[in-house]
Write a structure and sequence with these properties.
The protein has 306 residues and is an alpha/beta fold. The chain has 9 helices and 8 strands. 31% of the residues lie in helices and 15% in strands.
Length: 306
C-alpha cells in the first residue's frame, strides 16, 4: 500500500471522497432539489437569470424578502452556492430554501457558475467572487442590504464559501474585506490536496499547486465573520474531518464559529432541511442573520439589529 495522504492510499481516498457512495440512490434527492426549486420560482416573487458577468453561465436567481421593516436599509441577504463536485447542478436546482428564508425576512440569491471540466477551479472561484462583488454592488435594487450579506454552500459549494471567506482577493474585486457578515459551509472541502489523488481529479485536473492555491484552510483571512459548520450524519470520516479541521482553524484565529449537528441527514439531503425554519441548521443560520421564523414574527416587521 502506497500512503498518499493521512494514512490513506488511492483506493482509500476514493472511498472517503466518494459522496455518492454514502447514499443508496442520489437521484430522488436531486429530483427533490429540482422540484422544490421550481416551486419556489413559480410561487415566489423573483428575478430570474440576472447576469453578473458576460458568460451565459454567470447568472443569479434573486428572491426578495417577503417583508422588510420600515425605515431599514434593506433585508439581510442569503447567498446559496450549489454543490455537485464542481461539475454538476446549477442555480436551477438550488433555491429550495427560498420559501423559508424569504418568509423569515431575507433576500435569497442562488448563484450559477461554469462547471468542470470545461473550466478550471480557478475560473469557478473567480466567478463566485465576481458574483459576490455584483451582489454587494447591486442587491439594494432588490431590497437587500449590502452590509448584511451571508453565504452558504454545500459540498463543492461549501468549498466555494471557503474561497469567498479566504483573505487576499477583495481589493482586486473592489469589495471590502468584511463583505461577508456570516457564513455556513455544509459538507465543505477546505483542503484540496487529498482530492488530487482521487477519481475527482479526472475532471478537475488539479495540480498540487492548484490544490494549494484553492484550499481555504491554507488561506484564512485576517478578520473573520461568524461561522456555522455542519454536515450529514452519514458522511465519510474525511468529509467530517475537513469541516471539523476548518472550524478548529477558524476558531484558533479567534473568529466565532459553531458546529451544528444534523442527525438523520446525509451529504445531499441536508440541503433540503434549509427550507424547514425549525431545523437546528436553519435556526442557527437565522440566528446568525438576525432572523426569526415567520411564525415567531409580528407581520411586517423584522427583528431589530444593532
Amino acid at each position: 500500500m502506497t500512503t498518499l495522504y493521512r494514512n490513506y492510499d488511492r483506493a482509500g481516498l476514493d472511498v472517503q471522497y466518494n459522496a455518492r457512495g454514502t447514499v443508496p440512490d442520489i437521484q430522488p434527492i436531486l429530483k427533490k432539489y429540482a422540484e422544490d426549486s421550481a416551486t419556489a420560482r413559480r410561487t415566489l416573487d423573483c428575478a430570474l437569470d440576472v447576469p453578473f458577468g458576460d458568460h451565459p453561465d454567470e447568472m443569479l436567481d434573486i428572491f426578495p424578502a417577503a417583508s422588510t421593516a420600515p425605515g431599514t436599509p434593506g433585508a439581510p441577504v442569503f447567498v446559496f452556492i450549489h454543490g455537485g463536485y464542481w461539475r454538476l447542478l446549477s442555480k436551477n436546482e438550488s433555491s429550495s430554501m427560498a420559501p423559508a428564508f424569504t418568509q423569515a425576512g431575507a433576500v435569497v440569491v442562488s448563484v450559477n457558475y461554469s462547471l468542470a471540466p470545461a473550466v478550471t477551479l480557478d475560473r469557478i472561484v473567480d466567478q463566485n467572487r465576481r458574483a459576490l462583488a455584483w451582489i454587494h454592488r447591486h442587491i439594494a435594487r432588490f431590497g437587500g442590504d449590502p452590509a448584511r450579506i451571508h453565504i452558504c454552500g454545500s459540498s463543492a459549494g461549501g468549498h466555494l464559501v471557503g474561497a469567498l471567506l479566504a483573505g487576499g482577493w477583495h481589493a482586486s474585486y473592489e469589495v471590502p474585506p468584511d463583505v461577508i457578515r456570516g457564513a455556513a459551509p455544509l459538507s465543505g472541502l477546505f483542503d484540496l490536496r487529498p482530492v488530487v489523488h482521487t477519481h475527482i481529479n479526472e475532471w478537475m485536473r488539479m495540480t498540487e499547486a492548484d490544490a494549494i492555491r484553492n484550499s481555504p484552510t491554507l488561506h484564512l483571512p485576517q478578520t473573520g465573520c461568524p461561522l456555522v459548520v455542519s454536515y450529514g450524519e452519514s458522511e465519510t470520516d474525511e468529509f467530517k474531518r475537513q469541516s471539523d479541521d476548518y472550524l478548529a482553524a477558524w476558531r484558533e484565529r479567534g473568529f466565532p464559529g459553531q458546529y451544528v449537528a444534523m442527525p438523520g441527514t446525509n451529504h445531499y439531503d441536508i440541503v433540503l432541511t434549509l427550507n424547514d425554519p425549525h431545523s437546528p441548521l436553519t435556526r442557527a443560520i437565522f440566528d446568525q442573520m438576525g432572523l426569526a421564523p415567520a411564525s415567531q414574527r409580528i407581520p411586517g416587521n423584522l427583528p431589530s439589529h444593532d
